[in-house]
Amino acid sequence: MNLKKLFLPLACIVLAINIFAIIFQVELLQETSRLLFFVIPLVLFFQDLRFSNNNLLTFLLVFFFSELTILLPDLWYFNIFKLLLLITAYLLLSREALRFTKKVKSNKFILFFGGFLFLINGYFFTLHFLKIREHPGSMAELSIYALYYLSLLVLAIVALIYYINSYSKKSVFFIALVLAIIFADIFENMQQIYLLDLGLSLVQNILHFATAMLIFFFFTTKERRLNLRQFL
């Protein structure tokens, strides 16, 4: 039996369990089901992953450890540790995408779209900057947040460049992955800065689920340039 056929039903079951855990505030079930977002596609796509690729192997290890931090207490130094892991993961992801980039002529819509991403990222970085400055003795934390948002900005720029210069199925998965990462981060920030909201938690976890899937779709898809008309 092809294990990939199990992906969709298993993914739907885990996502349903996660939503149930969020609605009824079952914290342990929410955390374990969120870890399964990453574990299930890892197991099912394992044979298609090329572990000779150092970017892939290092990224998966670092990203997996960043996911495990959800089981740690909500203390500032654990949060900083998670940010450092994510910074490393995003830089590795950017490096992987740049391997497939070749220069071609761009178009105004894609440039506008990229600028929109940068503005959103800058807006939420400014909010975080102002929020963290309210707490004395937090310059180290502020510096890590600055590096984190810089790594997100680099990731967004790379996604834009890769898509502009590729127009391949792999590049579509990559830019969708970056969008999921950025918007999941936005919804998490909204909860931290404004209020805890059930709807925001649901959307954030669904985006996190999409992130986990797109990671493996990106790494297991071969780079094959497609005609731009196929995207119109």
From TrEMBL:
Keywords: Membrane, Transmembrane, Transmembrane helix
Bilayer-crossing regions: 7-26, 56-73, 110-130, 142-164, 171-187, 193-219
Protein's UniProt name: YhhN-like protein
Organism lineage string: Bacteria, Pseudomonadati, Bacteroidota, Flavobacteriia, Flavobacteriales
